[in-house]
Write a structure and sequence with these properties.
Number of helices: 4
Number of strands: 13
Structural class: mainly beta
Helix content: under 10%
Largest sheet: 12 strands, antiparallel, barrel
Radius of gyration: 18 Å
Mean pLDDT: 88
Oligomer: single chain
Distance between the termini: 15 Å
Strand content: over 45%
């Protein structure tokens, strides 16, 4: 299954699956599009659309999948430990909001995350992936931990992979992306808000179809349950998120 696209789409949802198995020296190129429901107040949903080239490449211990790259410290048929880096596109531009109050807030910028990841795959029990990462650019100085269990199923050219997972963000991460400082509160009239750390559960379904020996089409959906620390922020529009994605790739 071409799961590499999840490492780009999923992290928009405060999460991600960053360990994606590929054959050594394998290369595929494609294009992925995603749509996500509204996160921030009074911001058009089309601001949540994402379109990016999908590169899936692996050679020896180095790999590049979607919006993430890494180097394997350990790689066996069942287990994998890696140093990784990935782009976190989560952001807020005050000027994109239709609300005068929201336009008084500071922008929240996307960043580069780096850390360690581990995966274990079993024919009977499915696949477990976990990654702990930190903000490498000092944007939020926050920590993010993602864990996902999935069970790949395949029938001929068609494959499906249901997954359940949970993400943890520390208070620095949450205060940067969802908090409101005293100065912002004074300017905007919004209530000052300083969240703590949070746990964010989600459910996901990924699909893949081999059109030919080289061409694949894929898609998927994720439902994310926003925790109290996030949804109680005056910045946040809903108590959950829905994301859909799809695309195609060519394997060389």
């Amino acid at each position: 299954m071409k799961n590499a696209i999840k490492s780009g789409v999923a992290i928009v949802l405060l999460t991600g699956s960053f360990l994606q198995a590929a054959q050594a020296n394998d290369l595929s190129l494609g294009l992925t599009a995603s749509w996500s429901s509204k996160l921030y107040q009074q911001v058009n949903e089309n601001k949540n659309n994402l379109l990016f080239p999908n590169v899936d490449y692996e050679a020896d211990r180095f790999w590049f999948h979607g919006l993430s790259a890494g180097y394997d410290l350990l790689h066996t048929p069942s287990d994998r430990i890696a140093v990784l880096a990935y782009y976190l596109p989560l952001s807020f531009r005050a000027g994109d909001s239709h609300s005068w109050q929201m336009r008084q807030l500071k922008d929240r910028r996307s960043t580069l995350m780096t850390g360690l990841s581990y995966s274990h795959q079993s024919d009977d029990l499915g696949k477990l992936e976990t990654a702990l990462s930190t903000d490498a650019l000092g944007t939020s100085n926050g920590l993010h931990w993602s864990s996902t269990w999935s069970y790949p199923l395949q029938s001929g050219a068609f494959s499906i992979e249901p997954a359940l997972g949970v993400n943890w963000n520390d208070r620095k991460f949450n205060r940067y992306y969802f908090g409101i400082s005293s100065g912002e509160s004074a300017r905007s009239g919004l209530k000052e808000y300083s969240p703590g750390d949070s746990w964010t559960p989600f459910a996901e379904l990924s699909l893949n179809y081999n059109l030919t020996a080289n061409w694949d089409v894929y898609g998927g959906a994720r439902y994310t349950f926003l925790p109290d620390e996030v949804k109680h922020s005056p910045m946040i529009a809903e108590d959950s998120l829905v994301t859909f994605w799809g695309g195609f790739s060519y394997s060389f």
